[in-house]
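Notebook entry, cofactor series.
This is the third protein in the set we're modelling with a bound small molecule. For this one the ligand is flavin-adenine dinucleotide. I'm keeping the input format identical across the series so the outputs can be compared line by line later. Sequence and SMILES below, as received.
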Amino acid sequence: MAREDESMPEYDAVIVGAGPNGLAAAITLARAGARALVLEGQATLGGGMRSQALTLPGFTHDVCSTVLPLAVASPFFRTLPLERLGVRWATPEIQAAHPLDGEPAALVRRSVAQTAAALGRDAGAYRRLMNPLVRGHRAILDQFLRPLPIPRHPLMMAYFGAMALLPASALARLAFRGERARAVFAGMAAHAIQPLDHAITASFGLVLGLLCHAVGWPLVVGGSQGLADALAKVTRELGGEIATGRMVAAWSDLPSARAYLFDTSPRTLLRLAGERIPAGYWRQLERYRYGPGVFKLDYALGAPIPWRDPAVAHAGTVHLGGALDEIRAAESDVWRGRHPERPFVLLVQPTVVDPSRAPAGRHTAWAYCHVPHGSTQDMTSPIEAQIERFAPGFRDVILARSARHALDMEAYNPNYVGGDINGGVQDLRQLFTRPAVRLDPYRVPARMAGNARLYLCSSSTPPGGGVHGLCGYFAARSALRRL
Ligand SMILES: Cc1cc2nc3c(=O)[nH]c(=O)nc-3n(C[C@H](O)[C@H](O)[C@H](O)COP(=O)(O)OP(=O)(O)OC[C@H]3O[C@@H](n4cnc5c(N)ncnc54)[C@H](O)[C@@H]3O)c2cc1C
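Returned structure with ligand:
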């Protein structure tokens, strides 16, 4: 793809946005010999993988993503020499803990048998549910983490799909008799950010559960920024260019290229590409649905969180929301535009596995809850009440906190429309066919000078939210077919 004369475009591909998907697209293009340039609006690269000193000197916080099982499981990231480039994974002894009122917390460990053993009368049911999925995890992930739901592993997918299509609340009740196991499943499924009685929410519970057992729920030592920096190094080693502090506010900010890949929301794409997008596709993107937002807190702590059940202190992730019905009510409230009094809280204790993130003897914590789309409500008190419920005295160990409501999240990163961290609702209609129903979901039909092509490569394309780089990889493959 050598430049033959001065009338040729400056680049084969310009990528807008240096999140995991933008960088994955750049790497895929540069590997194939394309001249690729990444333009990142912020002063630092990484998108949802940035780490910053949000509270006190000496404390490092992941501004967005922190627990990265999808990165470890990603078939694309597995092709990269991440360890050589400094990425060190830290996997906790307990992947996720689910504290419950008046009884010991349920603990999800790498071992299915050990996890099941602590689930009382549902021990057998948990083993029967999880063991076949863990054995077939490669096939399931291969299917789940790609654009089209054409069954590549028909038997395993028939087995998995029959359960995955269900609402999480229905599968929890069908599979388990006791509240303990049901609560654990609800905590996993609530990552879907929609009511647990919506179809396909069970798939989130199943996939996140099997990731706990198959690969673990690891963090990057030093912060997720380490993964972003490694991806940037690979890009540059392959000859790709990255420019930060280059917010693309208008089409004229873009150098000439044969292909443009947008690691942005469909909304930003519409704003930038304007009348180049034909009316039919424009309407489809306008109808694209963004989901609820998040309210996020980061803490500098003077001591570990004083969990009532001391086992929770060994968990990386803690799901705070009690029983299935409570989590279900909280997620339904959010969907209907209400702020739950008792929100479902996702909390991570990075210093359990990575003491480098705080001065000696000090700790960090990362927590968020779901809130209605576009919310500006301060959820600090409800979140801290949920933590105190299972860790009395938590407020006494707080040295400093940083808080962001849903619209702060959008101001921080325009991809989080209304605070939606998944780049759009991930329900039956939008999980595999995002942002619109098309054979190639990455390709954007557009009327462009010089036959240049447009692509969307953010988490608003399949396979959706999370740090895996696969939206960028598949979009770049689509672009390469035409370069
Ligand atoms: C609070 C929070 C917690 C999360 N936790 C996890 C987790 O634990 N594990 C996990 O796997 N995922 C998690 N996620 C989700 C994950 O971060 C995202 O799904 C992922 O980062 C999406 O990657 P992306 O490349 O599509 O977009 P992004 O990571 O959002 O990157 C997009 C980049 O494009 C830039 N950009 C946008 N518009 C322009 C423009 N016009 N010009 C130039 N640059 C532009 C932005 O500045 C940004 O750097 C979390 C997200 C949040 C917010």
